[in-house]
Amino acid sequence: MIFNAFRKKPLFFTAIVYSALIFFQNQFPVQLPSHDISLWIGKSEAPVFLSGVIDSEVEERETSYGDHLVNFVLKAKEISGKENDKPLPVTGKAKVYLRNPDKNLNYGDEVLMRGDLRGPKGVRNPGGFNQKAYLERRGIRAIFYGDTHTEPRILSHHHGNFFREEAITVKR
After folding, report:
1. 8: Cβ–Cβ under 8 A, 6 or more apart, which residues?
2. pTM of the complete model
3. Is 170 exposed, middle or buried, given 0-12, 13-18 or 19+ CB atoms closer than 10 A?
4. How far apart are CA 146 and CA 94, in angstroms?
5. pLDDT per residue over 11-39, tens digit each?
6. Residue 148 DSSP SS3
């Protein structure tokens, strides 16, 4: 009986099932691991040291006032309040923004950086771009702004997917 009704009005029943899935998805929030990078947002007023592996293509651009801006996605590994403190393990991804780095950073590099860890902003204007939702759909829950006075340190190379690394190299 239900199958006959579904055959007669497939869009109606598809809409009901889809609505139920959306309703139940919003009823059970995602539980973050206890060592997720987003849990560090706002814990410290001072800059933090963050290490991890570059997990996206490194995008570069020049500004109209002569600065060299670099951004990429970092798969976080460790975080600490000071450089000599024992680093704590973290998981998750952070969008990283650096200004005028001297080093040539590439996909798969393991790096250590000093800077500020912040949460992404939501909608600023009604109907405008929602950076927080955009980044969360990509699994990114934190933003890291590198310190302009401290250079990122490359700890090692080639920690990413070999085929993706080669594709990025060929693209460039």
Report:
1. none
2. 0.77
3. exposed
4. 12
5. 777 777 777 777 766 665 666 677 889 88
6. coil
Q: Are 85 and 112 in contact (CB under 8 A)?
A: no
Helix (H) or strand (E) holding 117: strand 110-118
Rounded CA separation 69/100 (Å): 6
pLDDT number for residue 147: 92
Asked if 75 and 52 touch (Cβ cutoff 8 Å), the reply is yes
Q: Residue 37 carries which DSSP code?
A: G
pLDDT tens across 111-169, in order? Answer: 999 999 999 988 888 888 888 889 989 999 999 999 988 899 999 999 988 998 888 88
* Backbone phi and psi for residue 92, each to the nearest 5 degrees, phi listed first: 110, 175
For residue 151, give the nearest of 107, 85, 104 by alpha carbon: 104
Structure token digits, residue 115: 């800077």
Find the helix or strand (DSSP H, E) in which 16 lies: helix 10-27
Residue 153 to residue 134: CA distance in whole angstroms: 29
Tokens describing residue 54:
């570059």
Contact predicate 152/98, CB 8 Å:
yes
Q: What is the token pair recorded at 34?
A: 């206890």
